[in-house]
Write a structure and sequence with these properties.
The protein has about 210 residues and is an alpha/beta fold. The protein has six helices and eight strands; from the N terminus they run βαβαβαβαβαββαβ. Strands 3-2-1-4-5-6-7-8 form an eight-stranded mixed beta sheet, with helices on both faces. Bound molecules: 5-O-phosphono-beta-D-ribofuranosylamine. 5-O-phosphono-beta-D-ribofuranosylamine binds next to α1, β5 and α6. 5-O-phosphono-beta-D-ribofuranosylamine (GRF) binds next to α1, β5 and α6.
């Protein structure tokens, strides 16, 4: 059955593009029914316009790092009318709060650039480098009321190499994000992910997989 996807973005939208590409390549049977951005200048919105993907900038309200109050209600209403089967936070740089989470219980996932539970929050690559870690990666997880704390679905691991910078590391992780996120959405599309029965440990994405 075709999965209806709503995607929330704030900027570049490279994960949105990876989802769009996966649909075009028939990796899974899906449709992006709505893209919402909290930034009017997000490059992701240009991508949507170019590719005829329904998209909307909705003013995010007065807070810088969260969605609350009337703005949050506007996002919920827009999402409700699009009737997505799955909501994907893909580079969305705001914390979503209980009203939105509860409106779409266990149907919101996020892609985070670290091996959660390590480094929830921001500046994940700088923190991994600072700590002298030998590896890092990305995690797709269910969104709940704990920031980056929901059940983890899938992770990809990448090595940290001598001389790595935040830029080189984020580029290496981003490549994996663009594999893992479509892979998880494909599992949702094929009915292979049920929140209640999903274990507390994430699957590990094997990059060698064809
Ligand atoms: C990515 O690193 C993602 O992990 C994080 O936001 C960054 C930008 O994503 N959540 P995108 O290029 O806008 O999809």
């Amino acid at each position: 059955m075709k999965i209806r996807l709503a995607v929330l973005v704030s900027g570049r939208g490279s994960n949105l593009q990876a989802i769009h590409r996966a649909i075009g390549d028939k990796v899974f049977d899906g449709e992006i029914v709505l893209v919402l951005s909290d930034r009017p200048d997000a490059a992701a919105l240009d991508f949507c316009a170019k590719h005829g993907i329904p998209s909307k900038y909705i003013h995010p309200g007065d807070f810088k790092t969260k969605l609350e109050g009337a703005a949050e209600q506007a996002y919920i209403a827009a999402l409700r009318s699009a009737a997505p089967g799955l909501i994907v936070l893909a580079g969305f740089m705001r914390v979503v709060k209980p009203p939105l989470i509860r409106a779409f219980e266990n149907s919101i996932i996020n892609i985070h650039p670290s091996l959660l539970p390590k480094y929830p929050g921001l500046h994940t690559h700088a923190r991994a480098l600072e700590a002298g870690d030998r590896e890092t990666g990305c995690t797709v997880h269910f969104v709940n009321e704990v920031i980056d704390g929901g059940k983890r679905i899938m992770q990809a691991r990448v090595p940290i190499r001598p001389g790595d910078t935040e830029a080189s590391l984020s580029a290496r992780v981003l490549k994996e994000e663009h594999q893992v996120l479509p892979a998880v959405i494909k599992m949702f599309a094929e009915g292979r992910i049920d929140y209640a029965s999903w274990p507390n440990e994430p699957m590990v994405w094997a990059t060698h997989r064809t």
